[in-house]
Amino acid sequence: MAAGEAVVVGVRVRPFNDRENNLNAVVCIDMEGPTTRIRNIDTGDEKTCPFTFDESFWSHDGFEDDGTGYLRPLPNSKYADQRYVFDTFGQRVLDNAWNGFHCCLFAYGQTGAGKSYSMVGYGNNKGIVPISCEEIFRRIGQEKDPQKRYEVTVSMIEIYNEAIQDLLIDVELRPKKGLEVRESKALGIYIDGVIKRPVESYEAIETTIEEATNHRTVGSTLMNATSSRAHTVQIIEFKAVKDGSATVSMINLVDLAGSEKAGQTGATGDRLKEGSMINKSLSALGNVIEKLADRGSEKKKNVLIPYRDSKLTRLLQNALGGSSKTIMICALSPASSNHEETLSTLRYADRAKKIKNIAVPNENPQERLMRELREENEKFKKIFEAMQGGTMPSADEIKEMGLAQQEIAAMEGALAELNKSWEDKVAESREQQEAARMRRSSVNGVAALKKNLQPMMVNLNEDKTLVGRVRFSFPPGRTLIGGLGDESDSDSESGSESDSDSSTGSQPEGEKSPEEMFEDEDESPHIELGEGVARRHAVVFHDNDQNLCTIYAASEEGLKQTFVNGKSLRQLLKSQGLEEVICRQKDKPEAAGIELSHADTLVFGRHFFVFVDHMVCAPEILIASGQVDYAQAKREWQMEQLSGVHESLIVATRGGVLGVSHVMELAEKDEIIESQKAEIAELKQQMVTMKAELDRYKKMAGGRLAAGANMLGELYADELLESQMDEISKDIQKTFKDAIDQMNDVQAIFSKKALREGHLTWRSVT
Ligand code: ADP
Ligand code: MG
């Protein structure tokens, strides 16, 4: 048996960021050759523990800007620049692909540690992905054999919340639940229906990546997701064809979600388990690596590897434990304040290097497919013939037949794909892209160019590369901003403050309050945002003559959940002595609003934007100026959330006042907020069930009462039946008692809920 080949693991430490510099952060990482040491400075524990990897990349200091923005090493420094990292790791990936192996490169580490910097890079400091792409076409260009052809396709996907999304499809055209990972004996593991874009030059890859990044931003802005929680996978399929036979290698380049999510969960226990669902894939990856490392280093050869636990591990099954050459680059923060996270990343990396894979070069896919197809077909035929001969197939055989059928369908599809000429594929893909472009330009309207010169808002994001990619302009007149609305506040709860009373809510049809009539107006928002934004949220009125944009609340929710520079509209109006009016009119609003100025931050629900007045400067310039940043806007907004809730918190903790710093810390933990929201939702659901139960009891008790009264009437004269009456009245009493007990239970839940909600208002608004 061939000896396994270990996963190649490298760690890389980045420079301090501005925040760390301002806080005079202390370095806790040391590197010497392939060895990395970490010190726990905070606890005064100077003990260091060494970890040895294939590479330890020192990128913390010892560098300078070469004048183009590219960071190069100073003379005699050990600084590892982007080129060096590519030469040691990226080059290996390409060599493997050239030799017909599948390969995979992962970037692991906490958010902000430098994963994307290594993978994709920023500006002139291109990362492994773009350099590899350049290199692929450089090598193709150098091919001397005229008989040899190369075909390269690119797919880009994202895994967020256990759904696989194709980043090469417009957000609104994607299937809601995402794509499925399937496995076929002949095809191995593949994503059903993923777009494979044929690319014939580096520029084509670059455009494809750019397109995917745009889709990712629109998606995450609308879905309220942060990119740090998504895994991005770029799949390059590389095929070398000569004399009708081909080798195919898949190159998977994986920028993983921030590892701190998984870590935090483990540390904080049950409460956050729910939050951890958000990154099931990452914890599953940890388990898989753990098991594979066991298999690689000990006698436990037969451990079951839980690939199926998540979409990510399933997709990368081959890369992790199969016939793939795998490289992992773990990004480290140098600051002692991140000691714990960094140590856990190092341990992770240490486990990963114990994994051993056996990579075999891939054979001609066409021949293998044909062979497998024939085999499957034979099996299928045998069962079928037996059936015709009158033998009923067993349950197992039926199952096998079903599987065979699936397998055959998948293989037929793949064969058809293989038989298409490369030229056809390229032409087909061009057509698709052109259609998508047409669709987009017709959606954007003819005035797309003019639109750019209107005042607008552009998105902010924690990921720098995504800032400014979503733009909404405000043409002269009125623009309504809305979202999905809160589905739970329709029907059952709307308008009834005293929702414990089930007898309200039966208003005669057709009689509606002016408010309701207004809400009925079927006006879809001009700017549609996602979750957490009311259907009618805010209105921006652009007065062209005065060159002035004013923002108004379009609903109660909008009043509370629209923020300008961190202050809610409600608060802003109050502080200016203006009435808290909600803008109802369709034409020019007369309600009180807030005038917007260039570079104001705007928050709707949790969607962050910055207002850009084109007369002052273009959005690119504003963003590049560093005048606005997401972290700052988010802090402002968080402070605002906190100041409004301090009081309710004090009430809720019943005397035990929490320190402000403690409160701040809580506010930072998105996961807590998420899990508590879910808890409230669950509680709500419980209450609905209890309410229904209670209604049933009330009805039952009423029915019994009526029956009892009837009987009493009939039997009134009959003294002999007095004892029976006693029985009945006892029965009735018991029913009442039960009903009252039940009612008390419900009451207790109500007050518990009220207490919780009072306590949580400020969290659940986020
Ligand atoms: P992640 O993808 O892990 O969340 P990023 O790659 O976005 O983190 O890095 C966070 C910040 O640190 C970015 O501003 C990036 O430019 C900077 N950075 C990361 N690694 C390096 C490096 N090796 N050299 C210089 N700057 C780096
Ligand atoms: Mg990143």
UniProtKB/TrEMBL annotation:
Residues 401-439, 666-700 form a coiled coil. Residues 486-500 have a biased composition (Acidic residues). SUPFAM superfamilies: P-loop containing nucleoside triphosphate hydrolases (SSF52540). InterPro entries: Kinesin_motor_CS, Kinesin_motor_dom, Kinesin_motor_dom_sf, P-loop_NTPase. Residues 6-355 form the Kinesin motor domain. ATP binds at residues 109-116. Keywords: ATP-binding, Coiled coil, Microtubule, Motor protein, Nucleotide-binding. It comes from the Eukaryota. Residues 478-525 are annotated as: Disordered. The keyword Cell inner membrane does not apply. SMART domains: KISc. Belongs to the TRAFAC class myosin-kinesin ATPase superfamily. Kinesin family. This is Kinesin-like protein. It comes from Durusdinium trenchii.
